[in-house]
Design a protein that fits this description.
Length: 297
């Protein structure tokens, strides 16, 4: 499967009593589709997947697929620090009809590089759904090396990586290594760092899985589309229009600022689930200032 464009790592809206707010989740889905996104990710880490029960996880994916109804691509978060659990979540996503699965590297365990290959191979062996490997070492404690990503690219069914190591040099080396193996046409690099999407795509990336697009989807879509159309002048303008908001959205742990911003903007988000907590007041003011300067409030 070819992954190209703007995918939104959706937040999961909750009711005041902590349940999944299905009506408002559906509202957010339609809002983002109306803004021109390529695809939507449900039950990913921005959706507070670590605090969802298995039944809730399945429900989020089920609602996403039902409401999208084929209008854009649907991606289900299905990673875990247990290979067995990741397999079950990915099989569930496939059964529900998701177009692809986003599988984060196992967290806390810190598996070796050869163990990471076995992990993704095991998932791919028992499912037919396209898999996006998610590399975010600041969250998981393990960084998928360039060499390992190239080996993953050779596995049938692993079609992309969401790269959030924060290293532009790594992206450059990765694209060069994929090209050397003749894999660059069949394996996509997606930005997992909103503020680095422009340089990542300039080096061979084909899109972004974006948390900030919950808040400012229009500009992110326009920037990514501008890059895909080789209009780097317009892409640079949009990058700088967004950058203060992006910075503010990561001033505290994601998705805390994103949910806060959406609540400020009148978009459905609701409360956070523990152990996440409300933002510090001084950071809320920084966020409000960035939103105001970007004409989002």
């Amino acid at each position: 499967m070819n992954f190209e464009g703007t995918y939104v790592a959706m937040i999961t809206p909750f009711t005041d009593d902590g349940k999944i707010d299905e009506e408002r989740f559906r509202s957010n889905i339609n809002y983002l589709i109306d803004k021109g996104v390529t695809g939507l990710v449900g039950a990913g880490t921005s959706g507070e997947s670590a605090t969802l029960t298995h039944d809730e996880h399945r429900k989020v994916v089920e609602i996403l697929i039902d409401e999208v109804d084929g209008r854009v691509e649907t991606v289900a978060g299905s990673g875990s620090n247990s290979t067995h659990e990741a397999i079950e979540l990915t099989k569930s996503a496939e059964e529900l009809g998701a177009d692809a699965a986003l599988v984060i590297t196992p967290y806390y365990n810190k598996p070796q590089q050869h163990a990471l290959i076995k992990h993704y191979q095991a998932i791919s062996d028992v499912t037919d759904i396209p898999i996006i490997a998610y590399n975010v070492p600041s969250r998981t404690g393990v960084d998928i090396s360039v060499e390992t990503i190239v080996e993953l690219a050779k596995i049938d069914g692993i079609d992309a990586v969401k790269e959030a190591s924060g290293s532009i040099d790594k992206v450059s080396k990765l694209y060069k290594a994929l090209t050397k193996e003749g894999l660059e046409e069949d394996f996509n690099i997606l930005s997992g760092e909103d503020g680095l999407t422009l340089p990542i795509m300039a080096l061979g990336g084909t899109g972004v899985i974006s948390a900030s697009a919950n808040v400012d989807p229009k500009r992110m879509v326009l920037m990514v589309d501008s890059i895909l159309n080789d209009d780097y002048t317009r892409a640079q303008e949009l990058h700088y229009e967004m950058i203060n908001v992006i910075d503010a959205l990561f001033i505290e742990s994601n998705p805390v600022p994103a949910k806060t911003a959406m609540n400020i903007m009148g978009l459905p988000a609701g409360p956070l689930r523990a152990p996440l907590a409300d933002m510090k007041d001084e950071n809320v003011e920084i966020l409000k200032k960035a939103l105001k300067e970007a004409d989002l409030i």
